[in-house]
Amino acid sequence: MPPIIQVSNLCKYFKNIRAVDGLSFSINEGDVYGFLGQNGAGKSTTIRMLLTLIQPSHGDIEVFGLNLRTHRKEILTRVGAVIERPDLYQYLTAFENISLFARMSGEKISKLKLLEQLEQVGLADRAYSKVKTYSLGMKQRLGIAVALVHNPQLVILDEPTNGLDPQGIADVRNLILRLSKQEKKTVLVSSHLLSEIELIANRMLIVDKGKKMVEGHVQELFDPSAMLVELQVINQEVTVATIEGSIWKSNLQKQQQDVFIFKMAKKEIPALNTYLANHGVEVLSLQQRHSLEDYFLSLTSANQHVQAFAN
Amino acid sequence: MFRLLQIELFKIFKRPRTYISFGAIAAMILIIQLGLKFDGKSYLQLLMSGISDSFIIPYDMILNGYLVAFVILNTLLIQVPLLIALVAGDVVAGEANMGTLRLLVTKPVSRTELMLAKFGASVVYTVLLLIWMAILALFLSMLFFGTNDMLIARNDVMEQISKNDILWRYVAAFGYAAVALSTVAALAFLLSVFADNSIGPIVSTISIVVVLTILSEMKIPLYDNTVKPYLFTSHMLAWKGFFYSKVDNEGEAIRGSIENLPAILRSLGILFSYIILFVTVAIISFRKKDILS
Fold first, then answer.
1. Residue B44: inside a domain, yes or no?
2. Phi and psi torsions of A204, nearest 5°
3. HEC sequence for A207-224
4. Position B274 in a domain
5. pTM for this entry
6. Domain for residue B293, yes or no?
7. I need a labelling partner for B246 at 20 to 30 A (CA). Which of A168, A308, B74, B112 fits?
8. Structural domain for B123, as ranges
9. How many CB pairs under 8 A join A and B?
């Protein structure tokens, strides 16, 4: 089966700036594909090229096995998208917005169906309120409803959780999972939040400065048995001596004064904690960090920023 | 295409700002009508001061609905381009500013279709504004002031048009004005493509129209044959030509005639050329444009 999206050697230059530099990747049917990178890494530029908002400087994009340049209309009929902010017509109601974009998609959709779509994102009771009275979370949900109204096969969401509160983020996450698992849609979701991608994506691509850093299955890139645990203790010397003669010595990755970093499986954390407590180590704080986060930082130039900030 | 046009019109007429123009035109027309109703004679005396000593002028007959409509059109057709720019300058730039342009462009319609629908909607708005103006300026004036033969002053000569020979001239004049104002709409539309908020194109359109109108009206021999004939503003008021009749050997206006129809048609041709030029450049530019808003 051909990939849903096949991008080959995609480039976009803005004068002397290389926003996207020779990017190649493919997305298969049914994937929830995470597109990860820090702000300015080239995610939005790539997505805009996929949606024909920006013309590539060179490179090829195929969607549903068709060339985007020559089959634009055909492809976009089967694509729904939310691009960064959920900008809609503020002076129109939610119902007017969704019905307007449904008509633009070429679909004849009944009023009942449109209201059902609003119901699915929890906006049915505010269907006839003007969008300018909506909160950011409501606008984001309406944006998603607009993207899905014509039942697209491919859903592209560019930073869909930007500016949302924790409940809003959870709602969007659940919606993406539902689209993938129940409705069997292919979803491309970009984010600079690693934790979000990790929770919803099965495959992902990390980009930095417009270039591909790594692409693959999330499970392959992120080993759950290799979590980083950061301990801060009060009695540093006692801790050093305790660890020195224990089985935990091999797990210790790094020590920086009173902070000790261990690499271990999540289920091992209570045992370490008990061991240290039994040997008189007073633990001030215990934090877990995914190795993927370090992996991400090590791959991207964000690492340089973090180090510069720490220094 | 018709579906897109409907959508664009729906958006235009759902915006409160669209109705500012209709309100402004109604207010201006009613103010002029009210002034002429109560002090029209003084206005005509001022207008005919050169000949009032030689002739007995029947002011009550002259001040009729047709003349009032002509006075209104003469005054307003210079201001209306500003109101047209308010909407036409917003059709693309306003969407870029709201962020809705990127959503529109991701829909399965070609950019050319989208632009044609947007320009089409601007033209429909222009025509509706003119119909509104016609209803108020012509029909309301006919109701308030009655109808009679119409006197028109031209080059110190008064020309009389029979009351049965006027209405078609107004229809033609409004049709011409629709083309003239669509030229302004096309200019605002073109400028709208290059901006991310509507203030720029609106102000730029108004500035260009004002500067070119001044240039068109200035009596500088150097410009008369070199620049002026090619400025669209030089042709915007050619609608008046529909009210100038041919005269017979006795100096009487020939019913149903137009003094210089080829000149009007030439002006129309120039305006259409500008419309085609502005819209074509707008479409080509928009097709190549990266939507970054």
1. yes
2. -150, 160
3. EECCEEEEEEEHHHHCCC
4. yes
5. 0.82
6. no
7. B74
8. 2-288
9. 74
What are residue A82's DSSP bridge partners? A157
Interchain proximity A51–B98, CB inside 8 Å: no
Chain A residue at shortest CA distance from B290 = A54
Residue A70 has pLDDT above 80, yes or no: yes
CA distance A188 to B181: 46
**Distance of alpha carbon A268 from alpha carbon A262, whole angstroms:** 11
Number of domains in chain B: 1
Domains of chain A with bracketed CATH: 5-219 (3.40.50.300), 227-289 (3.30.70)
Is residue B44 left, alpha or beta, with left meaning phi > 0 and alpha meaning psi from -120 to 50?
Answer: alpha
Whole-number pLDDT of residue A251: 85
pLDDT of B218-266, one tens digit each?
Answer: 888 877 888 888 889 889 888 888 888 888 887 777 888 888 899 999 9
Distance from C-alpha of A88 to C-alpha of A110, rounded to nearest angstrom? 21
Task: Return the ∠ at Cα A73 (arms to B190 and A177), rounded to 5°.
Answer: 115
Q: Name the minimum distance, in Å, from the CA of B188 to any CA of chain A.
A: 22
**DSSP 8-state symbol, B291:** -
* Phi-psi region at A9: left, alpha or beta (left = phi > 0; alpha = psi -120 to 50): left
Interface of A with B in 81-140 (CB under 8 A): 81, 83, 85, 87-92, 96, 100-101, 103-106
Q: Is A71 exposed, middle or buried (0-12, 13-18, 19+ CB in 10 A)?
A: middle
DSSP states along B117-159: HHHHHHHHHHHHHHHHHHIIIIIIHHHHH----EEEEETTEEE
Find chain A residues with C-beta within 8 A of B8's C-beta. Answer: none
Separation between Cα atoms, residue A207 and residue A222, nearest integer Å: 16
